């Protein structure tokens, strides 16, 4: 899997209260085809998937597809016992923030998760997609779509109603997050010195450049 | 168990009792603490049995199971017992996580109470 | 915060500062000045090392001499004052550390260590000297 045959290595972190379905969501997205790697001593569970990303260049012309190696991180339930540390957040480039549509408490805690993100993530307005999960459990719904949409709008982030068990909107949510990250990188990274058609190294150059802008203070994107 | 030193018998009984209560009915752990007991739970300090039981009871999981890998007990110069446990736990349907926990036990009114306790997950987010 | 709790917080802070200093000295000593490590233990202190009990200066000296050279890195440190209800009057602190250690000839391993530190009055010195009364050490490895 990590054969180096990709253009970008992108790390996402799934966040939200225990039990909202983060693990099932990621399992669903990676089609359960790829083995998950659980690093017991770090408390991170992660899955990987290869996707191709196509951006639209100026004038609406489609660019060359970028080969993306996605690493999707899960908290492995450690948040039941402790507050997540900055170390946990800082390497992630994008966040899938999940709550459970059948649990009002998990929706109320979205605010707390957003504060933690604003505090610990690589910049004050990281790329986040909000997902109201378990939309298939219509009889047990406790949070209205409009309420959730309103909260997402307040934070300026996209909102999806997802079902990790059926797969509904799971790929869409991840793809939208990926699009946000790629567009951010396009804005932040000065690629003018890279000639057309030259392959970037295995994702490291872009993440390094992103880290550089992080080191210079918060990303100004 | 009769061949083992007294402190080891007491320590082993305590540990068994503690995790049995923790895994089945956390509020009942109240009897093992005093008003002066200290708990450090993943870096957060709690003082006194009320605060300690409140913290333990409010941990967000429905099911929990502990499995002990190793336990060490020794008598201290002040006639207390120092116990250290290394093991694994599983909360609800999450992955198994490692943990370690240390207890200082004191004989009090014909029972043993826990005056100090420290809990940490075996995580190394460096 | 109640006055009582404020006092308690001060006691905890003091205990923790003493503990941190001690822990730094301990791991530096075990890594770089192994020969004098037994001096950090009280005369009748006990160390339980991966289940093996070692008591007294002589035994500790032999044990530490036989132990390969080490490189310790502490990741977390927790400390608590031990209330006098559990001690015979001497200030005592419980310290728990965990981290990584590499012994010569082995690879890196995770470890946990629990200390009971107590002050040892030295008449000529106004500052209390902390020593280890009890010590418990275990590796913690998981097949991952």
Automatic annotation (TrEMBL), chain A:
InterPro entries attached to this UniProt entry: P-loop_NTPase, Rab27a/b, Small_GTP-bd, Small_GTPase, Small_GTPase_Rab
Instruction: Name the PROSITE patterns for this protein.
Output: RAB, RAS, RHO
Chain intervals for the UniProt region annotation (Disordered)? 200-221
Any GO CC annotation of this UniProt entry: late endosome
Pfam families cross-referenced by the UniProt entry: Ras
Q: Which reaction does it catalyse?
A: GTP + H2O = GDP + phosphate + H(+)
Q: Where is the composition biased (Polar residues)?
A: 200-214
Q: Does the keyword Transferase apply?
A: no
The protein's topology relative to the membrane is: Lipid-anchor
UniProt key word Membrane: yes
Listed A to Z, the keywords are: Acetylation, Disulfide bond, Endosome, GTP-binding, Hydrolase, Lipoprotein, Membrane, Methylation, Nucleotide-binding, Prenylation
Q: What class of enzyme is it?
A: hydrolase
Q: Where in the cell is it found?
A: Late endosome; Membrane
- Domain of life of the native organism: Eukaryota
Q: Which family does it belong to?
A: Belongs to the small GTPase superfamily. Rab family.
This chain's protein is named small monomeric GTPase
Query: Species name for this entry?
Result: Erpetoichthys calabaricus (Rope fish)
Q: Which gene encodes it?
A: RAB27A
Automatic annotation (TrEMBL), chain B:
- Domain NTF2, first and last residues per copy: 10-121
Where does it mainly reside? cytoplasm
GO cellular component terms, A-Z: cytoplasm; nucleus
CDD domains in UniProt = NTF2
Subcellular location(s): the record lists: Cytoplasm; Nucleus
Q: Which UniProt keywords apply?
A: Cytoplasm, Nucleus, Protein transport, Transport
Query: A single GO BP annotation from the record?
Result: protein import into nucleus
Please describe what this protein does: Has a role in nuclear-cytoplasmic transport of proteins and mRNAs.
Name of this chain's protein: Nuclear transport factor 2
Which species is listed as the source?
Answer: Erpetoichthys calabaricus
Give the encoding gene's name.
NUTF2
From TrEMBL, chain C:
Main subcellular location of this protein, as a coarse class = cytoplasm
Any Pfam family from its record, for instance, is NTF2
Where it sits in the cell: the answer is: Cytoplasm; Nucleus
Q: Which UniProt keywords apply?
A: Cytoplasm, Nucleus, Protein transport, Transport
Q: Which residues form the NTF2 domain?
A: 18-139
Might you report a single GO cellular component term?
Answer: cytoplasm
Domain of life the protein comes from? Eukaryota
Q: Name one GO biological process term.
A: nucleocytoplasmic transport
Q: Which PANTHER family match?
A: NUCLEAR TRANSPORT FACTOR 2
Q: What does this protein do?
A: Has a role in nuclear-cytoplasmic transport of proteins and mRNAs.
Q: This chain belongs to which protein, by name?
A: NTF2-related export protein
Native source organism of the sequence: Erpetoichthys calabaricus
